């Protein structure tokens, strides 16, 4: 029986850790574990057998890192196929005779995709394709993409796995104690994105212990009808005598496994620190339990990296922001031509603030490279706002590029009933797991009657379903004509909305403002028509969310049509309403002071525009130190605060960090004063394991301005390298910066070495993690809280 059949009928047990068991059997630290598939096949086989003997139904191949990027660390990048084929063969030899299945394990690359890192979608896709093709060729029963923390990378891996062959794929993420992946994805969003990319099951592995995963498992099982895998670590790792120890017992792990099956999980196993004993106990506990088959109706769900938005036939209507569209907007057209994203960012934030739950993105300017323009917009927006995006273009190439880059589940705006559109757009939606807005027009144009538009909608749905796109992922736009020219068109549109909902059970959307072309006081007509469309059952509208009347109409109509049950949302909004009007057209941000603009730019990680903001501020007479102290540093500190409290995620931290670094590079020459008198030499470094260098760089420039020769060793600097440089340059002072509690522990080691070697140099320390008290405890000669204080202290230390 195949994996897909078995997983619906029985609760399956999957094996536990491989790496730790290989190490126990002699795999040297730092050696490539996958190489042992070739050099030590008997050891790998023995481990598989241990798991099979205790009841594992699925064993995973020793191929977690058998992919080019990882093997390159060992100079073995040309052995991808060899290691994968060997690993599958070993597993099959022991699994198949006992009726167990072989899952080809695929792990993440360990580097980020753009815009967070250097890798392009195509590069990542190619690497996963190479590995998955080898696994499929070797005959795995399923592939498991495991321990993924970045949804963007998971998307590329799933698309590659689907292209590699017709093998079921399990998409398994790692979530931390906050219940999100390290790039901020929640369990529902993870499930929504992967199920449309063809995953046969979704899951969580590694991460933390089973206790910390309980909520994640509940959320996963409630968010998808797919089978759910749960393979936690044997508790949280602890460091004991320099070794990592996992303390969760087999009995406790088994207990949780039973509970997870009750929540709806159906593939149970373990990850780091688990042994055959753990898996045996899990097998005993879940043996004979049957999987809970779920058949929930979720409606149309779209997702950004961090948030899912549901459009449900009975749920609240949703506003799709229309302002990121250059039609009729000269400033936005000019920005797109110049390759900038300033207005795009500002309008995106303003629309979300005004209540848009999804943002439509259109870059259609004549004579512009629209693929590049869309790429810029998507990369800027997907880190800036949590609202999912609606890709609005008629060019399949532009749509495809957007869908490759987007780390979520987008909507394509739009497909229609024309043959050309069906043939080009539907395959893109299928391949990249996107939802669709379906326009009810075809080769004959817009049909005049509601029943004809219904027929077009029916045809689009049928073609989409034939291609494997589920009908709930299609939202039908019944099209509104201009009432001044064709008054008979309005009732037909309203009728079509009702018919599509009743007869096809689909959700509907509309670009409302078309209705009022050519009439005075257009907002009035728009709002009245919008209320009528909502009464007819409209589920979403592409509109200007900064138009207060439209948003109020949406909220009030939701109450009147019974979609806002007990008017809860309406009341909450009215109570929270401070009476301030929602900003219109020109965002208020444009009137902000230069310091406020810079502060906001750091908060939003606006590395594209930060230099021009700095130039503007300098041109207005502000000085570099003022910009740092009053805008940039407070901005990055606020980012740190939000990251610490869990409202910002790693991508935002990274973009803000890059924005800061770029700002500093621009300000460096402004800060440098080139003093002549030399007062001493400082060897400066951010300690080992720590890549935070923004503060250290400021200290570096300030010291140089005050007559110190600064030997700046950079960041993540080894302790011995610091000592070596101090000796070589006869340093008067060693300056160490650390921003993490985990890295400041290198400071006492350096101080100890200075003393051991009898170096005639003082050690000063600083950085956000360090305190005066800590400096005293470790025997440092001084501590400085900021760069100005660092200069004062350094002068004092050199007498
Ligand atoms: Co990270 N980060 N970060 N981060 N980051 C912190 C430090 C954190 C406090 C955020 C938080 O959780 N709230 C937290 C550490 C928690 C802890 O240990 N207590 C944290 C974490 C967890 C992480 C990662 C682990 C995140 C992850 O990957 N999951 C990761 C670690 C990477 C690593 O180092 N191995 C990470 C990564 C990053 C980025 C790369 C994205 C980026 C750094 C980019 C870069 O530096 N090139 C980044 C950033 C930007 C921050 C925050 C938000 C800002 C740091 C900063 O630049 N501050 C930070 C939160 C925070 O500190 N509030 C945070 C502005 C700078 C001017 O201040 O460096 O303190 P500071 O320097 C001051 C003074 O301290 C003093 O003068 C400077 C000027 O006034 N000073 C000295 C500094 N050095 C001195 C030396 C001296 C004297 C004075 O004498 C020699």
TrEMBL record:
Domain Hcy-binding residues, every copy? 1-286
Q: Which GO terms describe its molecular function?
A: cobalamin binding; metal ion binding; methionine synthase activity
Q: Which residues form the Pterin-binding domain?
A: 317-561
Give the E.C. number(s): 2.1.1.13
Catalytic activity annotation: (6S)-5-methyl-5,6,7,8-tetrahydrofolate + L-homocysteine = (6S)-5,6,7,8-tetrahydrofolate + L-methionine
Domain named B12-binding: residues = 679-799
Q: Which biological process annotations from GO are given for this protein?
A: homocysteine metabolic process; methylation; tetrahydrofolate metabolic process
Name the cofactor(s).
Answer: methylcob(III)alamin; Zn(2+)
InterPro entries in the cross-refs: Cbl-bd_cap (IPR003759), Cobalamin-bd (IPR006158), Cobalamin-bd_sf (IPR036724), Dihydropteroate_synth-like_sf (IPR011005), HCY_dom (IPR003726), HCY_dom_sf (IPR036589), Met_Synthase/Corrinoid (IPR050554), MetH_bac (IPR017215)
Name the positions where Zn(2+) binds: 206, 271-272
Gene Ontology CC: cytosol
* Keywords noted in UniProt: Amino-acid biosynthesis, Cobalamin, Cobalt, Metal-binding, Methionine biosynthesis, Methyltransferase, S-adenosyl-L-methionine, Transferase, Zinc
Q: What class of enzyme is it?
A: transferase
State the pathway, as annotated in the record: Amino-acid biosynthesis; L-methionine biosynthesis via de novo pathway; L-methionine from L-homocysteine (MetH route): step 1/1
Every copy of the B12-binding N-terminal domain together lies at 585-679
Record function comment: Catalyzes the transfer of a methyl group from methyl-cobalamin to homocysteine, yielding enzyme-bound cob(I)alamin and methionine. Subsequently, remethylates the cofactor using methyltetrahydrofolate.
Query: Which NCBIfam families is this protein grouped with?
Result: PRK07535.1 (NF005719)
Q: Which family does it belong to?
A: Belongs to the vitamin-B12 dependent methionine synthase family.
Name the UniProt record assigns to this protein: Methionine synthase
């Amino acid at each position: 029986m195949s994996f897909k059949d078995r997983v619906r009928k029985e609760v399956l047990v999957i094996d536990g850790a491989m790496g730790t068991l290989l190490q126990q059997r002699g795999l040297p630290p730092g050696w490539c574990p996958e190489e042992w598939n070739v050099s030590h096949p008997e050891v790998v086989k023995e481990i598989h057998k241990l798991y099979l003997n205790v009841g594992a139904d699925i064993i995973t191949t020793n191929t977690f890192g058998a992919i080019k990027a990882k093997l390159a660390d060992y100079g073995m990048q040309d052995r991808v196929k060899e290691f994968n084929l060997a690993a599958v063969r070993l597993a099959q030899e022991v699994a198949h005779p006992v009726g167990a299945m072989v899952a080809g394990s695929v792990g993440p690359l360990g580097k980020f995709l753009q815009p967070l890192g250097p890798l392009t979608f195509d590069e990542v896709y190619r690497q996963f394709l190479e590995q998955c093709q080898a696994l499929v060729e070797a005959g795995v029963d399923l592939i498991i993409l495991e321990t993924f923390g970045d949804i963007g990378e998971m998307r590329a891996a799933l698309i590659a796995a689907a292209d590699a062959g017709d093998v079921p794929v399990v998409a398994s993420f790692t979530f931390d104690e906050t219940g999100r992946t390290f790039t901020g994805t929640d369990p529902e969003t993870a499930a929504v994105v992967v199920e449309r990319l063809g995953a046969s099951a979704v899951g969580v592995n590694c991460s933390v212990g089973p206790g910390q995963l309980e909520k994640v498992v509940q959320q996963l099982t409630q968010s998808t009808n797919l089978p759910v895998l749960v393979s936690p670590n044997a508790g949280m790792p602890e460091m004991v005598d320099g070794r990592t120890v996992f303390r969760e017992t087999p009995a406790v792990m088994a207990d949780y496994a039973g509970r997870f099956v009750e929540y709806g999980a159906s593939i149970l196993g373990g990850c780091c620190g688990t042994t055959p004993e753990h898996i045996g106990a899990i097998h005993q506990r879940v043996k004979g339990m049957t999987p809970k088959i779920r058949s929930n109706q979720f409606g149309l769900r779209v997702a950004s990296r961090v948030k899912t938005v549901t459009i449900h036939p009975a749920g609240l209507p949703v506003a799709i922001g229309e302002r990121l569209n250059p039609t009729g907007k000269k400033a936005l057209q000019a920005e797109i031509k110049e390759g900038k994203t300033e207005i795009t960012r500002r309008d995106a934030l303003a629309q979300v603030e005004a209540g848009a739950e999804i943002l439509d993105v259109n870059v259609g300017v004549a004579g512009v490279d629209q693929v590049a323009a869309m790429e810029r917009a998507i990369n800027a927006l997907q880190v800036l706002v949590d609202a999912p995006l609606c890709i609005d273009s008629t060019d399949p190439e532009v749509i495809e590029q957007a869908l490759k880059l987007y780390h979520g589940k987008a909507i394509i705006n739009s497909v229609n009933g024309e043959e050309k559109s069906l043939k080009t757009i539907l395959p893109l939606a299928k391949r990249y797991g996107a939802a669709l807005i379906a326009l009810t027009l075809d080769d004959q144009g817009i049909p005049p009657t509601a029943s004809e538009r219904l027929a077009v909608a029916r045809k689009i749905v049928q073609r989409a379903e034939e291609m494997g796109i589920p009908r709930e992922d299609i939202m039908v736009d019944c099209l509104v004509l201009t009432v001044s020219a064709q008054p008979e068109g309005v009732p037909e549109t309203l009728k079509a909305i009702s018919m599509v909902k009743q007869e096809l059970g689909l959700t509907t959307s509309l670009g409302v403002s078309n209705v009022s072309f050519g009439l005075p006081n257009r907002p009035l007509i728009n709002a009245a028509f919008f209320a009528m469309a909502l009464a007819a059952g409209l589920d979403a509208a592409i509109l200007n969310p900064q138009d207060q009347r439209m948003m109020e109409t949406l909220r009030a109509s939701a109450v009147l049509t019974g979609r806002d049950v007990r008017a809860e949302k309406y009341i909450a909004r009215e109570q929270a309403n401070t009476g301030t009007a929602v900003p219109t057209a020109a965002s208020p941000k444009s009137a902000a002071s230069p310091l406020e603009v810079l502060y906001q730019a750091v908060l939003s990680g606006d590395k594209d525009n930060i230099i021009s903001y700095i130039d503007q501020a300098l041109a207005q007479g502000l000085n570099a130190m003022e910009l740092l102290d009053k805008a940039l540093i407070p901005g990055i500190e606020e980012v740190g605060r939000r990251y610490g409290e869990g409202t910002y995620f790693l991508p935002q931290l990274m973009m803000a960090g890059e924005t800061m670094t770029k700002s500093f590079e621009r300000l460096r020459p402004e800060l440098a004063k080139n003093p002549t008198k030399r007062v001493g030499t400082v060897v400066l470094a951010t300690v080992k394991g720590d890549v935070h260098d923004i503060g250290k760089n400021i200290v570096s420039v300030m010291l140089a301005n005050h007559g110190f020769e600064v030997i700046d060793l950079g960041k993540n600097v080894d302790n011995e390298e610091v000592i070596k440089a101090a000796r070589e340059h006869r340093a008067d002072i060693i300056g160490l910066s650390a921003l993490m509690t985990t890295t400041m522990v290198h400071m006492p080691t350096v101080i100890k070495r200075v003393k051991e070697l009898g170096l005639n140099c003082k050690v000063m320390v600083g950085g956000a993690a360090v305190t005066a008290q800590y400096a005293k405890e470790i025997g440092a000669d001084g501590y400085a809280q900021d760069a100005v204080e660092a200069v004062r202290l350094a002068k004092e230390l050199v007498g």
